[in-house]
Amino acid sequence: MSNQSQHPFKWRHFQADIILLCVRWYLRYALSYRDLEEIMLERGVHVDYTTIYRWVQQYAPELERRCRPHLLSTTDSWRVDETYIKVKKVWMYLYRAVDSAGNTLDFWLSSRRDGEAAKRFFLKALTASHTSEPRVINVDKNAAYPKGFNELKAEGYIPENCRLRQVKYLNNLIEQDHRFIKRLTKPGMGFVTLEAAWRTLQGFEVMNSIRKGQVQGVDKGDVRGQVALVTTLFGVAV
Length: 238
Hints:
It is built from 9 helices and 5 strands. The chain is α/β, with parallel strands linked by helices.
């Protein structure tokens, strides 16, 4: 394990609890970096919005990595769909999946909307530690999904008895879940680079999962439990 993973706040000018507070608020609420700068100033903390941006880039992916082992298992009925995220003024495709209870399975950012992109996303979701082997995968009429699905089934990654259903109304659940992520991306007016987009989206998605009660020991709506979880994952006392 790297020294940065063991001591993630070493050499930082600000205290770890202040850093995690800014990161958690940015990933949880629809705030811009400048909004957060003002909010922290109200609390007597002088921190530049560009510094908060660097914190999010550093710790959002780390939060997702540390949280993944604690995610609860999902059901075997999947809802898969893609939404749009603007990167460098170009629309990109954010593939996302939830189970029949609305719990997040996985996500994938791609510049393409084709069979290869669908295949890569399916494979990422299939190999996640918290996802159950799918019995049925519900998708819309996008022709890319059957192509990726059939290739993975032929390669043995998808069980033989799993069905792909192209019925749009069954995907209302995932379309509703898209709204939370889209709401968070709006204050930033799009991402400057693909790497910045991916790092930030990792944070948005993991905080969305925590908010929905997908993590062991933290129920939906348990705000204090969410705060305690994030600080505990980073070994910070509150």
